[in-house]
Structures are given as C-alpha cells and as structure tokens.
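Open question from group meeting: does this chain pack into something compact, or does most of it stay loose? Before anyone orders reagents, we agreed to write out a predicted structure and look at it together. Recording both the input and the output here so the notebook holds the full record.
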Amino acid sequence: RTLDSTSSITAANATFSSGTTTVNGTYNVSGTTTVKSGGTATVNGSLASLGNALNMSSGALSIGTANATVATLTQSGGLLNGAGTLTVSALSTLSGGTQSGSGTTIAQGGATFNLASFYLDGGRTLQLGGASTATGSYDYIYLNSSDPGSGTLTIANGATFTDQTTSSGLNIYAPNYGVSDNGSTAAVNNFGTFTKSGTATTSTISTTFNNDGTVSVQNGTLDLSGGGTDVGASYTGAGTIQFGGGTRTLDSTSSITGNALFSGGATTLNGGVGTGLMTVTGGTATFNGTVTTS
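Structure tokens returned:
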C-alpha cells in the first residue's frame, strides 16, 4: 500500500502486521504504533507523532530523516531504521531486533536488556540516560551487523548502566562482516557510571571502550579487550577490571583503585594506580603515573 502526499494516518493506534506500507503524507498517531508479523512501514512524509508507545516484534519501520518522541519503546525484534533522532522519554525495553541508519535513539528514561540479542548497526547511536540495566543469565549487544557501518553505545553524563547478569554475563562486541564492514568503528563511550554487580564470572566488552566516567566492578571480572582512551576515568570496586587486548591509554587524571589484570594488548597508565591487586599475565603495562603499594 502507498499513501500519497495528500493522504494521512491520524488514528489513535496504527498496526503494521504484514505487507509493505509507504506513507508519503502525514503520520500522526496519538496512542501506539505497532510493527509485527513481518509488516514493513516507511514514513516519507510528515511525521507528526508515533504516539505514546512504539512496539516492535518483527518487520521494519523506517522514519527517514524525521525526529520523533515516544514515551516508551519496546523492541523484541524487527528493524528500526532512519537518519533522524528517536527520543524515548520513559523506559526502553530492548530484548532483540536491530536499530540501524545514521540516526540516534536517545533512551532518556534508561533501557533494560533482558536475555537480549540486540544489534546496533549502520552508524546508529544508542544513548542511554537515566538508569539502565542488563539482567538475566546473559545479554548480547552487537555493535555491527550486515549494514555498512557499525553502532555506538553511549552512557550519558549522569546516567548509569548496571550489569546484573548471571551465568554467561554481558557481552558487547562487533562481528566482522568483511573488509568494508569489519566492526572496527564500533565503540562504547562511557560518560556516566558503568557497574558490574551481577554474579557472572566474567562480562566482556570487546569493542573499543572509551571511559570518561566511572567503572565499578563490584563482583567478578569485567574484561575490556578492545582498547580505548580514558580521560578523567576511574576504575573501582572489589572485583577485577581486566585489560585483555587492544591499545589503551589512561590520562594523568585517570585512576585505578580496584584490582586490575593486564592480560593482553598495551596499556599505558599516566594517572594514579594503587590499593588493589595488580596482576600482569600478558601484553604490556606501562606505569608512568603514581603507583601506590599497600
């Protein structure tokens, strides 16, 4: 179905459950937009409102260059695509599916990942505000898929992301889809507080992890194996932060006060280090700052 530029959808709710729908006119829903059962919707016209809630379980929704705001986002499958900004003012519940395109999803109210296999791709950014959690026995967040370009996960200033996973832990990585889409630009940027508190033995972030905030490993090990740059960063907690690969530089205002394991790659520490157990089993660790021994 194709709606021309003089057509409009102004119902309380709209559901796209099969086939392909292209909206070249006005889209203005006050209640809920639902994409399921393989339905595909493309909004090329004026996007006034997606409603209070956006629910996606399969199919695809493309919003082009338009910006939109919803109260809640629930995505268990399907593809959300576009170059604009989708702002979610309350909770985002993300357990599956893909978000792609050069746009940004701003989860102002935080996001929850539960038993997730969730993809960011095609240059898309997911910015977490508020309080976000990863729960369940595992969560997989992939920062690359079959679209050209990779994804970026950002923890905003003042926001928290707490890894509460058990068993297999939280895993953030970027699959390699070939020379032109190898996932090398994927990144996690932390400006807030990332906490590992779950009982999983190890959680792993194998993409670049840039830290301008706080990482608190309260339980088990958090393995940062993709390198990164730290500015004013702090690593704390009774658990262990593992630098497992890549090239990482901590500036002079960064510090490690918890336990640290250097097992791969090259880590340069220009700030303060001490009070915890420092273990080097592989790679190189260069201490240029203050080292405190107990």
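Observations to bring back to the group:
The CA atoms of residues 230 and 250 lie 5 Å apart.
The radius of gyration is 21 Å.
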